[in-house]
Amino acid sequence: MNASEKRILKLAIILFTIGLIIRYLPWGLPSIETFEVGESVFVANSSPGAVPNASSDAVPNASTDTIVNKIKPIANPDSEVRQEGQVPFEHHRKVKKKVTLPLHINTAGVDDLCALKGVGPKLAEKIIEHRNAFGPFKSPSDLKKVHGIGKKKLENLLHSIIFD
User: Fold this and answer.
1) Which segments of the chain does DSSP mark as H helices, in order?
2) Cβ pair 117, 102 in contact under 8 A
3) What is the pLDDT of residue 10?
4) By the 8 A CB rule, do 97 and 111 touch?
5) CA 5, CA 70: separation in Å to the nearest integer?
6) What pLDDT score does 44 carry?
């Protein structure tokens, strides 16, 4: 064994020993036992609604009822039973436009072009800018002139587009 190997072995033994000491000695890692949220005090590792052993100035008039009543349950948006004054939760999901393939490349908008495989919003904008600047696409070679469309992408797009 040379000197550098001895140093590495010594370091490994020292780190292993430190790991054993930390793992098996009685002291633990520091943790937060209680914390306050507003007027409520919560105790770590206790049953829900339990009152902490805190002084009266930390939590004024603390009792199980007041702590539990301050925690508001999250309503299920699908449930029909709602509390007074509670506004029903509405799901708003962006609906994708239905696109029929093959797509007319010279009349398609950004949303239509984004429906094509391999075309995102930026590339769709580039296609439209190129179409507006140089006129309608007449052949695949015209479409290949758009920055971002190479040989492979053009091959993938050809089966789902029509040139007018």
Assistant:
1) 3-24, 64-70, 110-114, 121-134, 140-144, 151-158
2) no
3) 96
4) yes
5) 62
6) 59
